[in-house]
Amino acid sequence: MIKTLTFAVMHFCVAFTVAYTLTGDLLVGGLVAIVEPAINTVAFYFHEMAWNMKEKMKDQIRAVGAASVNGWVAVQSEGAGR
In 10 A of CB 48, how many CB atoms? Predict the structure, then answer.
């Protein structure tokens, strides 16, 4: 969560600077700097959750695949002794 909060602060600064530079208006710069990063921060948090879930699923698929291969090798080894 700290990573998300530090990202939000950085994004706020960038958004304000860009909006103020483009418009020359402190109010518009401030509004854009508050609204856009707030929405982006929430989206980033859920993106991180989805990414972590994808990685866990990938690890589980690898584990199942390795177990299947190991089981197949064990069965083949048992049959070789016959």
Answer: 14
Find all residues with CB under 8 Å of 47, minimum gap 6, and list them.
none
Instruction: Give CA–CA dist 18/32, Å, rounded.
Output: 9
Q: For 21-59, how does the pLDDT look when each residue is reduced to its tens digit (9 = 90+)?
A: 999 999 999 999 989 878 888 998 999 999 999 999 888
**Stated pTM of the model:** 0.49
* Structural domain total, the chain: 1
How many CA within 13 A on the CB side of residue 2? 0
